[in-house]
Amino acid sequence: MNKNFLAFDFGASSGRAILGRLNDGVLTMEEIHRFSNDPVELCGHYYWDTFRLFFEIKQGLIKYANGNYGKLDGIGIDTWGVDFGLLGKNGELLGAPYHYRDKRTDGMMEEAQRLMPRREIFNHSGVSFEFFNTVNQLLAMKKQGSAALEGAQDLLFIPDLFAYFLTGKKGTEFCEATTSQMVDPATRDWSKDIIKAMGLPEHIFGKIEQPGTLRGMLLPEICKEVGLDPVPVYVVASHDTNSASAAVPAEGDNWAFLSSGTWSLLGIEVDEPVVSDVTYENNFSNEGAVGGRYNLLSNIMGLWIIQQLRADWERMGDKLSFPDMVKLANEATPFKCFINPDAPDFVAPVGMEERIKEYCRKTGQAVPETRGEVIRTAYESLALKYREAIDGLEEITGKKIEVLHIVGGGCQNLLLNQMTANAIGRRVITGPAEGTAMGNILVQALGEGSIKDIAELRKVVKASVETGEYDPDNAEAWSAAYETYKKVNK
Known about the structure:
Nucleotidyltransferase, domain 5
């Protein structure tokens, strides 16, 4: 029997409404609405344009209603991690949610570690230290005397906030919550030790729900506005990385996944979180996954640098497509210089070309001269960063990784796929490109009952997508490049 599910998949720069039709173990997908996601800079701060994004959700629902697709069996929402909205005592949103790149978190990691030793924070969260983690954002609001935080009754992460707007029901999804650095890996619930140490109000942290849970039904007034009958809204793996990892068409145990987009998240699935000295020293994270499992992963800057190079050049009047950039990189000299994609130098969104050149100057390397060399430096460095993460996973787990599955939009970059296979010295399997939306849809189906477990979910993925394969090449040159990369970025 055909089932229709609608995934709202938000990235850092755009969002989509994707219709998934599940029929006899095969999923077909159709994009029915696409929109930009444009952060707003106001009075020196970055915010998400939350109300416009919710308007776009309703536009997606209207397009579904007008498309004669039949009964809608579910809605699910996934977004980036860490960011949130605060609700007041009457359920109203208290201010615009901040963007994770907002500078108010400057110095907050250090402040958090003053209140609780760094290793204790890790022991109580299992999460790597990133400036944008929710705990640092909340600490910044507390330090600045935020009226919103003082008046807050509930904290809702962005996907939970949109689900609240749709259903009137509050809740906290497990995978998204773990990105906060405030969920205890031993209990899979909020860490009272961290919350108390930071002096945060305990009452704002709500009940944590697992992916596949029914959050609520579409509100009657929204049904009337968009032209739909009541529709279930399901909790999915609402951090996009964990939706994508659910849709990895993998078999066996000796594989890792890479969710490739603006951010690259490279990791493996584990039954229990790994909170160890080696995990801590390598700055890996334990993030929630479907079925109560965890993803042990490394957060890597990803294609952000490439995207911002393109945006910078477009502001200068030079419009380069991503295929144009790949062509320029292909023609450039290999292994001229390297950067650390995760260095603080590359966090800001403007002036990326000059910051790459300056990084090379200050690390005593040759400086890339042409745009092709700049782009190739970014691509090669990213592929070598993946090698570093693979090495870290093997050190932490003692298990040999034989295959890397790349999912998400970045898996369509053939040059980077081959560079990655070369850099890590392992076979790379790519697809699905729409892994996040596919994971969102199939977790809805899990909640609705059309799919019984994660193993069946992955069988549906394998039956529904074509994959690509890349074998490593030029091993000696890439191994030498990796040694140089490590020396430059030590």
